[in-house]
């Protein structure tokens, strides 16, 4: 219906121009004289231009979008170069070009605007740039470019939309963090596992005959020479170090800081060679099994790029439900923006002889705990649970205090 109305208006304007040309011509024929003919010939070029503009095909314009990067991290500058190419060099007095930004980017700071007015005239190629100073984390779908032009009198206006689709997934920021492994508690007592996680750095306690699958670096050359057979080092059995991160996705104004902190945790722990699992429950449930390596980090970062604070289930309920399914010795890291009274029951219910538990409360700069949160903090600390309030910008050494406690 809207298109029909638009076409009717355009036809009406075109008829108006034809009538004006006809009226000035009739006036010149009947009136005669210099003034009347001057009026006719003066209006004729503008009238003809408007007629040709009305039939000029906007689909003649081809548009490409080129960005300064193929992948982005939150906070980086997004620069797009828009190139318009025309086959017909029809003179355009002005051309308004507008990139239809995704909703999440409409309020972003733009040092170079995504909507500009240019004066191309006969140019067959037009190039302009726009810039978003700090692109936010998330999924951003770019649909296309809106064009608008017209004649001098505003009688004829042409609009067009040219589809140029691009999809960008903006990954979360992270901070280089120094992760220190904690002591692991077992039924027999507490033993320190504060050693390197790779087997090559474990202590050799003996030698044995070579077995298929042993690494070249494990061969003991002196023993091999004495025995006249290939001998490999026997290593002390190491304790595995598995970490499970619970991410609080209840609605919060400080959720972005929580995502940055979680991304930093994941990167630091995996860098140490440990296995990691992420439990992230909102409108959809995302639970990543215990794994290590680059692929695990990529999968978790892909999730963190899209994650939203849309959980309707209390964080404590999610933690309680998932912890019941875990039986092996692990370290639990709970990451939240707010301390709630129901967290006390959760930390009391975790069998700490089988696990370590650390609770991180992520806050913006200069944001203090409320009175209720301070009360909960005091109760949890009396249960010998490590709780750390982490402020934005102070993520690097959060485990320094952990290692001393």
UniProtKB/TrEMBL annotation:
Looking at the UniProt entry, the stretches that span the membrane are 12-30, 36-56
Keyword Transmembrane helix: yes or no?
yes
The protein's matches in InterPro entries, at most eight in alphabetical order, are given as: DUF58 (IPR002881)
- Report if keyword Transmembrane is assigned: yes
Which residue ranges does the record assign to the DUF58 domain? 207-370
Q: Which UniProt keywords apply?
A: Membrane, Transmembrane, Transmembrane helix
Concerning Pfam families, the annotation shows: DUF58 (PF01882)
Q: What is this protein called?
A: DUF58 domain-containing protein
